[in-house]
Write a structure and sequence with these properties.
Length: 265
């Protein structure tokens, strides 16, 4: 549309007209989104030109008056300042990067995660951040080995208390295995294994977390053999081989309350 540079007219399947806005940057075609009117589409194009060509605006300048959505604003600002064009709202820093969820919320990641989040858009639901990959949804905490059932403050924590900082050095895993809690004190190492039936049952207390994790699996097997199927998630332990696992499994002690538990209770 000559009157509106950077704007093309299009139609939806139902015949409804809309307007696409785009800009070409160093031979790369960048879509700026779709709009109901050519005026809004043209405004988005002009804003993109002001960012890239006139070097206008800083990150803090974005507000609701822009035709560009915030995600596109960040993408263009990052390209202008770093020369790298991403498909997601990444803004590079030295040694790390910001991933902007909104003008008020940005997450911090190590540079080594840059290519993953350049290809995977972070979505938010109920306070949880997740990405979609091969048709499935994955909590971003799973990249750190943190399971979906893990509880913040109990099973993992943010070392600097910034819950938006997902750099590896800031994620501390307290309890790696399901049902296992580190209850050590200054004098003794101790790991408590608990399984939920009608309330929490203590399976036992053990000197190391591997034994406690195996004990949890054994407790699941005992209960399953009794016909109690709660779809328990069992522990997968990568640090020991099959023979060592079997040795621990065969010798680990389990609470009599678990061994004698029946459905009738």
């Amino acid at each position: 549309m000559k009157k509106y540079p950077g704007v093309t007219k299009a139609k939806k399947k139902n015949g409804e007209v809309y307007y696409r806005s785009s800009i070409t940057i160093r031979n790369k075609h960048v879509s700026l989104s779709s709009f109901d009117s050519p005026e809004e589409a043209s405004k988005a194009y002009r804003e993109a030109c002001e960012i890239i060509r006139e070097k206008k605006y800083e990150l803090e300048d974005y507000d609701d008056g822009f035709a560009l959505n915030f995600e596109k604003f960040i993408i263009l600002m990052n390209f202008r300042n770093t020369g790298i064009l991403f498909k997601t709202p990444i803004y590079l820093q030295k040694g790390y990067f910001f991933y902007y969820i909104s003008p008020e919320k940005r997450l911090i990641f190590d540079r080594e995660d840059m290519f993953f989040y350049a290809e995977h858009k972070i979505q938010v639901r109920g306070g949880y951040y997740f990405v979609c990959d091969y048709g499935s949804q994955y909590n971003i905490l799973s990249r750190y080995g943190i399971k979906n059932y893990a509880q913040k403050g109990k099973d993992y924590e943010f070392s600097n208390h910034n819950e938006d900082d997902y750099r590896y050095e800031n994620i501390r895993i307290i309890n790696e295995y399901v049902g296992v809690t580190d209850i050590s004190d200054e004098l003794n190492k101790c790991y408590e294994c608990v399984i939920h039936l009608r309330g929490n049952y203590i399976v036992g207390r053990y000197d190391d977390e591997i034994t406690a994790a195996v004990a949890y699996n054994k407790a699941v097997d005992i209960l399953t053999a009794k016909g109690i199927n709660r779809r328990y998630a069992k522990n997968y332990i990568q640090t020991i081989n099959v023979d060592d696992y079997k040795k621990i499994y065969d010798t680990v002690s389990i609470s009599k309350k678990i061994i004698e538990y029946t459905k009738a209770k």
